[in-house]
Hints:
Distance between the termini: 22 Å
Strand content: under 5%
Structural class: mainly alpha
Amino acid sequence: MKINATPPQSAFSANQYAAHNAAQLDKQAHFMQQLNGAMDAAGRSQPDNEVAVSVGVDYHSISEQARNYYQIARDNAYKRVDLSQPEKQQQIQFYQETMSEIMEMPIEVKVEPHEVNEALLFNNLGIDFLAYKELKVRIEMLDLTEQEITDDKSLETHEKDKLKDKIDELKAKLEAAIDELLGDSQDKPPETDPSGTPSDVFSLYQTP
């Protein structure tokens, strides 16, 4: 399998990603106001930092589950690399396959003991906590991919930038699914069972 040299149908610019992040931050801030209000009403404390919504990337705080699944994604991606290519092209394809694997691979998340209160509050707001957590884990895996690309000394800056643009595009799709989850809570009364979840996460990597 050779690398497709055809440029993407639509480039996801840095300005578009910044604008999306700004809109996401506004929406998530509104959601956190709702969550804090629900916690106050229930007499609970502020949720743990691992669960609270945030936009910045702290690589040291990436969950162990995300790191474990990332290693699985890397292993699966390597199996699909065409080793007959030049070494640099192999590396580029490896990152491309890793991104695809992150978006498509089935993963299972569970409510950890320290997340029980948050999961109950999400449920009261009509939000599927496990769906939210799964999306966040996939974003963390993309963060790890970006970190690995940044540290890769075999690639030129423009090659890294092209791969990072794809990561930004995929993150935006996952964040849009999170926005849909959080946005549902603004329109639904507490205790309401969500009628659906965001689009199938396993199809997010596909270009419409």
